[in-house]
Design brief:
about 425 residues, alpha/beta, Carbamate kinase, VC0802-like, 2 domains, eight-stranded mixed β-sheet, 11 helices, globular, disordered C terminus, binds aspartic acid, binds magnesium ion
């Protein structure tokens, strides 16, 4: 008999029929003899609706009160699911985050889980009940309701799986797993059987919005394997777990290709090549609370150099203004900007044990006459910045070049 923690997202509990579908699934596991803890999100669209309500009353909404409001979304679904389960003859009880004592810090709307008291859940499981827990919410030291940030139910599920020692945390959603890239861009994209926490973190932060990033960090920290599956069709989904190092040569070079359309770059041309210049360019940008992603500085020639960095497109105009206002102090001849760029990244732990990935990547892009504007690398990732008009072409070319297309068997990870 195993203990399973399952999480169902907003689409999966979007109406009463879907809640009935979830209940039937849960009952199936109970009948096989498994203990089941279910974490649910608010019904699809409900959290957005509540945020809109709050904002029509107060702008910006008071953070404490907003959390009181938002936590009601999940409270509705836990009760409806518990009732539906009972209707199927399956003993069940629902709990808010407060009631199971999911303790968090006091950072309203982005609280972090500090600890979970699992006694109450354990006692219910022992009497044969299914335990239904509200995702996305907790309670701080003063007993105030907190929420964990958008998509936070994933993190609730992982925290419960860790606290209860569950073998696996299953995240049921509207897709059947994690894909090699966005199937809307590459129809040949295929579901990955497995990937590592590290790879998932890279793919998530680069825009594969399947899981809340924090839940993956949490799962990685506590070693809880995560499985992403569809709540509508049966299938194995994608298992996200620790790096299996037994035979690194067996690992495919690349697990996935992520991309980000929201990039913009700024180049300061001809700045003096002396200590402190990088700091004096990026210092005021950071002070403006603008996050910088890639940074490239050329090696200096005749005492000057070019300095290029990327920011989110929404911050482009403001960054350009900050930099232009100061450009004379670095002796810069010009400040240029381009907000029609995108970033494409290859991600894979297999890169560690295989040389030549970067040159293969550049060759594949060259074959399509795609100019690379910037390059950055890390141990398991290579990113390039290209003109936005090449996004689809570039991602497709790389997907094929690295053997990720659906009909290709080599590179399949077991
Ligand atoms: N209901 C919250 C949201 O929409 C939390 C979640 O669904 O995970 O972000
Ligand atoms: Mg979600």
């Amino acid at each position: 008999m195993a203990l399973i923690v399952q999480k169902f997202g907003g689409t999966s509990v979007g109406n009463l029929d879907r809640i009935a579908n979830v209940a039937a699934k849960v009952r199936g596991f109970r009948e096989r003899g498994d203990d089941v803890v279910v974490v649910v999100s608010a019904m699809g669209g409900e959290t957005d609706r509540l945020i809109d309500l709050a904002r029509s009353v107060q702008e910006p909404p008071d953070p404490r009160e907003l959390d009181v409001l938002l936590s009601t979304g999940e409270q509705v679904t836990i009760a409806l699911l518990a009732m539906t389960l009972q209707g199927l003859g399956c003993a069940a009880r629902s709990y808010t985050g407060h009631q199971v004592r999911i303790h968090t810090d006091s950072a309203h709307s982005k609280a972090r889980i500090v600890s979970v008291d699992h006694q109450r859940i354990q006692a219910d499981l022992e009497t044969g009940r299914v335990v239904v827990v509200a995702g996305f919410q907790g309670m701080d030291e003063d007993g105030d309701i907190t929420t964990l940030g958008r998509g936070g139910s994933d993190t609730t599920a992982v925290a419960l799986a860790a606290a209860l020692g569950a073998g696996e945390c299953r995240i049921y959603t509207d897709v059947d797993g994690v894909y090699t890239t966005d199937p809307r861009v590459v129809p040949e994209a295929r579901r990955l059987d497995s990937l590592t926490f590290e790879e998932m973190l890279e793919l998530a932060s680069l825009g594969a919005k399947v899981l809340q990033i924090r839940s993956v960090e949490f799962a990685s920290k506590y070693g809880v394997p995560l499985r992403v599956l569809s709540s509508f069709e049966d299938g194995p989904g994608t298992l996200i777990g620790p790096d299996v190092e037994d035979d690194p040569m067996e690992q495919p070079f690349i697990s996935g290709i992520a991309f980000n359309r929201d990039e913009a770059k700024i180049t300061v041309i001809g700045v003096q090549d002396r200590p402190g210049v990088a700091f004096s360019i990026l210092g005021p940008v950071a002070a403006g609370n603008i996050e910088v992603d890639m940074i490239v500085q050329n090696s200096g020639a005749d005492g000057t150099t070019d300095f290029t960095f990327t920011v989110h497109r929404n911050d482009f105009a403001r960054t350009l203004q900050i930099v232009r206002e100061r450009s004379s102090q670095w002796g810069a001849s010009e400040v240029t900007g381009d907000d029609r760029i995108v970033k494409i990244s290859l991600v894979g732990v297999g890169m560690r044990s295989h040389a030549g990935i970067a040159s293969r990547m550049f060759q594949a892009l060259a074959a399509e006459s795609i100019n690379i504007q910037m390059i950055s690398t890390s141990e398991i990732k290579i990113s390039v910045v290209v003109d936005e008009k090449y996004l689809e072409l570039g991602v497709r070319a790389l997907h094929t070049a690295f053997g990720l297309d659906e009909n290709v068997v080599s590179g399949e990870r077991s």
